[in-house]
Amino acid sequence: MLSGHGFFRAYLDKIGKVEKPDCVYCSKDRDDALHTFFECSRWIAERQKLQSEVGGLRPETIIDVMLVSEVHWELIASYVETVLRQKKVEETKLAARKSAR
Ligand SMILES: [Zn+2]
What we know:
This protein is an all-alpha fold and 101 residues long. 16% of the residues are buried. It has one domain. The chain is built from five helices and no strands. The structure holds zinc ion (ZN). Zinc ion (ZN) binds next to loops.
């Protein structure tokens, strides 16, 4: 999940699926796992909800936080899933809109 693969434009760019690796939601020029889960403004609400439940989240500590308890694990896994699912839906819509033009 934090491998950098999956639905990240930096990865899609590397394999030639998109023209630019930039984030479609904000001005960040590189959309990867780190940006999506820890920085991107699009997911502030989801991130804040998660942080209110498991505490502060940083890339260096997220694995430790996940291992605190099964509940923590589930909460973080569900955050990751929600974000990725939503991202896929929205980017598919954006791509369809672009090609329809
Ligand atoms: Zn972004």
